[in-house]
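Hallway conversation turned thread

IA: we were arguing at lunch whether anyone had actually written out SHQ1-domain-containing protein end to end. Turns out nobody had. So, for the record, here is the sequence (449 residues) and right after it the structure tokens. Reply here if something looks off.
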Amino acid sequence: MLTPRFTCSQDDDAVIVSLYVPSIRATEVSILVEGTSFTINVNPYFLRINFPSPVVEDDASSALYDPSSGYMTVKLAKAVKGEQFQDLDMLGKLMAPSTSSPATNRKPMIEVLDGDDEEAKKAWLMQERDTLLDAEKHNWNLPPPLPDTPFSTSLTHPYGFLNLHSGYFPRATDTENEVNTYGEDAERLSEGERWEKMRAHEEEKWDPEHYIADFMDDAMIREILAQDAPFFDLLHEPITFTDDENLIMIQLPQREFLLTPELNRNLYLTIVPILFSTAYDALTTFSEPTSQSAWTISVLAAPFVSLNSLPANCTLLSALVSCYRRALAYPLYRSWALCEGVRREAAQILRKGRRGVGKLLFWTRAVLDAGGPYAAYARVWVDDYLRWVQMHASDETFLSLADELSALHISKVDIGWPLQELEEAAQEMQQGDSDDESDQQEHMLPAPL
């Protein structure tokens, strides 16, 4: 069965669902309305939507099909007239199953469960959400408890979002992916081994001379930082999703994520390097992605390189340190001031909540998909993040994270490289050269008559 393109809107009394179902027989349409659930089935299309509040079929409800356009418009009465339904533009959330069950024993799985004990499950979800918000507010720098690390005898190790993926790098040496430094071992290395190798490669790539050169000759850096916000038009309020973006959400695999508060917290932190890397590329290309943009985004995002979420004991500070280290070791422009500017942009994106973060992920996805082998990172990270943002994230938590990211103090010492010493040495050298030039000019002055 195919999932049709659709949009939802509302007035005071009803919800209107517009579906694109060309070349159907209107007499074969089956519609079921039950509580918050709306299901339509007409060969070859099937769609189930879960609204935030109940709808009913009554005399005011209707279903009209226009064979010339292929659109069907279904009008469903609200059970409570005048109630405003939230997030009707979040198609991923509308298509998500209405109930979940708590994850036990910290085993993150993807699973669709039955609808038994619906009220208890809804109550658990609300309790988990409230717990998560309370725990995370102003608390991003406190490390969570260290998780139990299960022993595994598997010859392969999954990776990506919640470690749900594998098989993307079995013949990595045959591709032009310059970010994957593990080669075919990407499928066999454990999370810890991939992370250690990534950090070791950062040390190899760190170039003090490159850093000093960009520090001393910073004209381009200043021009980059002087531009208007790179995503001003994209994130202009009200933020709306395009038809193409909605179609992507409809076509993504239908998965339900069972999350503990610890896992959800880690997903919030892990998204920071992804937003940071996208903001870096947008700033340095003046919002005009180049043929190198997919590489830039991929190589700067530690989750893409390591194929892991950030470590379970990660804090917001350590997440930011990983962003700065990679931005100072790999791309063309390596500047502390630029890192600080990118941090500000990432915080602004987070302030836009789920819709702003979602728009940036769509941008990231498009750049990666145009980047040949780097499209693999869109599959193992961005696609799932798009669904998570709509289904599980909250505007309040993104705002809290933005505030903490803006206020966080990060020192050059935290990076692990002698940045301050290099800058001071370069300034002293520049001052010495300036003094030498002044002395030479004085010697060249004509003698007084």
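OS: looked through it. The chain has 15 helices and eight strands.
IA: good, adding that to the notes. The domain at 5-88 is CATH 2.60.40.790 (Immunoglobulin-like).
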